[in-house]
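Table S4 entry, 40S ribosomal protein S24.
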Amino acid sequence: MSEAVTVKTRKFKRNPLLSRRQMVIDIVHPGRANVAKSELQEVIGQMHKADPKLVIVFGCRTKFGGGKSTGFCLIYDNEESCLKFEPKYRLVRNGMFEKAEKSRKAIKEAKNKGKKIRGTGRSIAKHKAKRAAQAD
C-alpha cells in the first residue's frame, strides 16, 4: 500500500441528463498487483472535489505485464441521482443499497411461473411472480 498510485483521466464527458461526469481512468501502479476500488474512489474524489461515496469505479482491467490498469468512472452530482440511475448491483457493491436475499427455490419458482404465460399478459404475470417471490 506504500507504493505511489497515479490516476489519469481521459474521454471526460459531462452528462447533465444523468447528472454525472463520466470518464475512462488510467491507473499507473508500479510494484503493485492492482489497486483497490475504495482507494481509487478516494483519489478520484480528491482530484474532482467530489464525495468519494458518489464516485463509482468499475470495469478495471490490469494490462498484461502489470503496473498499468484501465477502468471506467462515474461521478454523480448528488446521492439522489446516483440511486436513481445507477444499477442496483453496483449500488450493492458500493454499500449504498442492501441486497434482498432470496432462496434459490423461490427464484426458480418465479421463473417457471413466468414461463407458463404467453402473449401480451406475460410481462404483467412475470412482474406478479417476481413480487410473490420477494414477499416470501
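The chain has two domains: 6-94, 104-135.
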